[in-house]
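#struct-help
A.M.: can someone run this one for me? Single chain, 292 residues.
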Amino acid sequence: MRWQGERQSENVEDQRGLSKGVMVGGGIGTLIIILLAAFLGFDPRPLLQVMQGPPGGPGAPQQQQQKADLTPEQIEQGNFVKATLAMTEDVWNEQFAKLGRRYEEPKLVLFSDQVNTGGCGFTSAAVGPFYCPGDQKVYIDLTFYDELKRKFKAPGEFAQAYVIAHEVGHHVQNLLGISDKITNLQRQASQSDANKLSVMLELQADFFAGVWAHHIEKQRHVLETGDIESGLRAATAIGDDALQKQAQGYVVPDSFTHGSSAQRVKWFSKGLQTGDVNQGDTFNDPELLGSR
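D.P.: on it. Structure tokens below:
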């Protein structure tokens, strides 16, 4: 994938290697909270802020942040993410303009191990890349890319770009009001039907990732030989059936939340081939409706 020399997004927050410490200045009560937090495993900062009053007020604790130096490889990975996110911005700004709407660019947060989101609470890297609609940010621990390469046998930069484009696809759904509509339907549905609605939502995000790939290639010819195959391998590797077979040796379709490998490949490919946002209505697809 040709990304070197491309514009880099300014919407990336790099928190990798960032450690935060609190310098206590609030007496024995503050010390007790710190010790309880260490014992019970919660973040004491919100409670300390309530106790100490407004930032900078009398007795407010001082925070110091230390960030470990990134390796040249980590810096290169960060630059790749920034360039890829910029490409999604260029495509979706154009597509939203065609719809007569304004695209609100999401932030993307790079983190290590765990992260405190603004709208989805504390989250571990174990959940993989995700989009938080509460703060309109995409979160990625880049060690997931190592897992994608080694565990799921889906190497390549375009496979990594597909992951980012999929999460940005969820942001597109959020801006278009699709996410809220599906969440409301899920609240009224059985667990099985709620899972199927989740599958439809995820497959549409795959479709939007394909739409992005279609238009960025048309605009800038960034794809190289093997890139499409790399993206399709990634879509195949993280299908619910493939993951369940790998984890437990058998498949339970009613528990699918992201779609089978074949479904993910189908919808990503459809977006890639058509580039037409209007053809991504997974919620009225006869095949998917028939499975409900």
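A.M.: thanks! The chain has eleven helices and eight strands.
D.P.: also worth noting: The longest helix spans residues 191-220.
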